[in-house]
Amino acid sequence: MALRSIAALARERARRIESRVVSEHRLRADICHAARVLYERGHNAPADGNVSARLGRRYLLCTPTGVHKGELSSDAIVKLRLADGLSIDEKRPSSEIKMHLGIYRARADVGAIVHAHSPHAVGLTVSGQSMAEPVVPEAILGLGGIPTVPYASPTTADVAAAVLPYALRFNAFILERHGTVTLGDDVAMALSRLEVVEHTAHITAVALATGGAPPIDATEAAHLRKMAEDAGLSRPLDGGAPIRLSAAEESLAEALAERVLARLLAPGRS
Ligand SMILES: [Zn+2]
Description:
Elements: H1 3-40, E1 50-55, E2 59-62, E3 78-81, H2 97-106, E4 112-116, H3 119-126, H4 137-143, E5 148-149, H5 157-167, E6 172-175, E7 179-184, H6 187-209, H7 218-230, H8 247-264
The structure holds zinc ion.
């Protein structure tokens, strides 16, 4: 390869590393913000729930286990390798990390996952009330539907296995007697979807308590689903194609990029 081409490749890689540093700082702040919102809005008891986000192609950031989610600091966020789920900073990730890893590996388009023990959504599963056929149009338009995943013991690999068929088709679902899971391009989108689920569950619970919660008329529901499908919100998802480089290409590009980045960040550069 010509020297000029190698230099261009290295400069491009350096820019990506530079933006990754900024992205990691931003992502850590986004995760802390989402965890605090979930606690303050009553979705979680202090140590409940978890939030993660994809960091480039090889890493994840995730909330730590057993920590008060309303008081998280950026440096408490755990960094893991996507390939094997190992923490690279010796912190302990969320006990539900297997579920997060399974979803990221199956859906290359997912950039963030939010999980909370939202009381109305979980309460409906305890009483056996499904939200797969929502009572308000927003849940169909925004999410396509909100299925319930059959019960599996929290923190086990059974949760990850039970979730996968739903995660391949939906961006929001409820784990029976456990909690809500939402997926998004980024943390803000996943958080927003989780709030739509809980708001819909709240409306459904009020309707049930005041006379009944019949689902939207079947013809109208089909119309709304078509609208959601046309907007790309509810069609089955293919997960996207992963990007692959050979190990030799990866290490050469990374090594060159690190050297160019050192030059770019050297004192005296504007
Ligand atoms: Zn949970």
